[in-house]
Specification:
Layout: E1 9-15, H1 22-27, E2 28-36, E3 38-43, E4 46-51, E5 54-58, E6 64-69, E7 74-81, H2 82-86, H3 94-104, E8 107-109, H4 113-131, H5 138-169, H6 173-184, H7 191-198, H8 202-213, H9 217-233, H10 240-246, H11 252-263, H12 267-274
Antiparallel strand pairs: 1-7, 2-5, 2-7, 3-4, 3-6, 5-8
Helix pairs in contact: 4-5, 7-8, 10-11
Protein name: AraC family transcriptional regulator
Keywords: DNA-binding, Transcription, Transcription regulation
GO molecular function: DNA-binding transcription factor activity; sequence-specific DNA binding
Length: about 280
Amino acid sequence: MPKNTLPKIIFLEIKEGTAFTECIIKQYHTHLFCHRGSIKFLFNDTPMVCKSGQFLFWFAESRLGQIQTSKGFKATVLLVEKDFLTNNIPDQGWSINAQLHSRVFPVKNIAAIEEKERILNNFKWMNQRFNETEHRFYDEALNLQMRIFILEMWHTFANEYEQRRHSLQTGTLYQQFINLLQQYCLTEREVQFYSNLLNITPKYLNHLCKSHSGITASEWIQRHAKERILILLQNKDLNISEIADEMNFSSRSFFTRYVKKVLGLSPSEFRNRVN
């Protein structure tokens, strides 16, 4: 393995009082299964808790604060270096929705014992593959194991994801808006589009979002569009014009201006920075 680089995988068994340092939060995607007790935290300024039997996923550079573990807390954690995971996400349509869903709902309910075992085995196999440094095809095998890890996690979370989507469809107007946003934000970036589907005015939709989450519908739309742009720009198989077409921009120049607005960089500048 190259020297002077962050480990791609860190496997931990943690207990109460364990500190999540700023370096870990910024550099690693956190996968945590809670065995006992609970962990409380602020996620995008919203109080959340992960309890015994639940799974927690934080993207690297998530906006987190006030992380506290309860008495008797115990968890198994797999940390994956941010670029290593991103570079090995399988090229499937489900990936964008799965990522966006996790950025809104980081805590997952794991009801079945076999799914708990699947998660913990997935952690163990990933760590074992990372430590097999004498393997003749180490890099290739490790990358393949990372892709299998992601697919296994998606399999585990698919039912929870679909159940939550169904509850959102039958929930409040605000919840329905969030669900619609996950479905349409790739191509629809106007408040009017979503307010029409909900049969309310854009002004009222902005008011609902502001009262429920502290940010307007416009800001929600821009957040989701930004996430999609980041995911698509990291896909090296797509050129910038293809991404602009996929996101329904009328021209590459309009797409470039929008990207500079939300990222502070042009699409080309962003790709040059991450490569």
